[in-house]
């Protein structure tokens, strides 16, 4: 058997090429597992598309097989269309255990034509209470849009179609815990939350419109997987996932916050009568 044959080298290059394609995101079969809801969660188009659905009996959910510690994670979602009131689509990173860290996107549905709310939160050491909510500048049910989390030792940035909407800076030096050591998995689920989701619970889920379905595609993680993370973060620090916002990014962030932010825990004096959380101090460099 001659190893240098043409057939062998074609096979060799084919394998290399497939490897290169896989580096772009990979497939839902490879990178995720369905965790609940049975066949309400489906992977199709050879692993490139995933859907979750919700009916009166159950919602559904999936999680990543890998854990990540720092990086940039992108996913495209198309949310439940039509009357989605009462439904919540959660897409988040979370570590495990009682003092877990968590970085949340939650999409609160609405009746047809009324706006979704994008609810965000950051948990550190098991404690959240850092909600910010936004309307979106597009209809998130018509097309896929990209929702990203950039997480490095200095900051967490939430992005929507590459527009930064929220930045949570590392403020450990003033005593605010930051997610720094616990690796996180990616989770998503679609469930019924009509006791609070839409107009604070006034609008209930219309089960005659079930099943409700959300779609996912084009997952990318430029991230340190827990296994690689034994090596230090510095091996990533030259890459975009170490980035901070430049002037352009800061302008976009201000634009989103000015025109689309509808709730900010940092300005909710009624909720924090003893004083706002330390990271909310406008004179500090952490806001
Ligand atoms: C739903 O629409 C109403 C009316 O426009 C709005 O007040 C509310 O913020 C919207 N979103 C949710 C999730 O309730
Ligand atoms: C994933 O990465 C590829 C290659 O950089 C890019 O073309 C694609 O748009 C990315 N997907 C998302 C959802 O950002």
TrEMBL record:
It is found in: Secreted, Cell wall; Secreted, Extracellular space, Apoplast. Belongs to the glycosyl hydrolase 16 family. Residues 1-25 form the signal peptide. GO terms for biological process: cell wall biogenesis; cell wall organization; xyloglucan metabolic process. GO terms for molecular function: hydrolase activity, hydrolyzing O-glycosyl compounds; xyloglucan:xyloglucosyl transferase activity. The keyword Endoplasmic reticulum does not apply. Catalyzes xyloglucan endohydrolysis (XEH) and/or endotransglycosylation (XET). Cleaves and religates xyloglucan polymers, an essential constituent of the primary cell wall, and thereby participates in cell wall construction of growing tissues. The keyword Cell wall biogenesis/degradation applies. SUPFAM superfamilies: Concanavalin A-like lectins/glucanases. Pfam families: Glyco_hydro_16, XET_C. Glycans are attached at residue 110. This is Xyloglucan endotransglucosylase/hydrolase. The active site is at residues 102, 106. It is an enzyme of class 2 (transferase). Contains at least one intrachain disulfide bond essential for its enzymatic activity. GO terms for cellular component: apoplast. Residues 22-216 form the GH16 domain. It comes from the Eukaryota. Keywords: Apoplast, Cell wall, Cell wall biogenesis/degradation, Disulfide bond, Glycoprotein, Glycosidase, Hydrolase, Secreted, Signal, Transferase. Its EC number is 2.4.1.207.
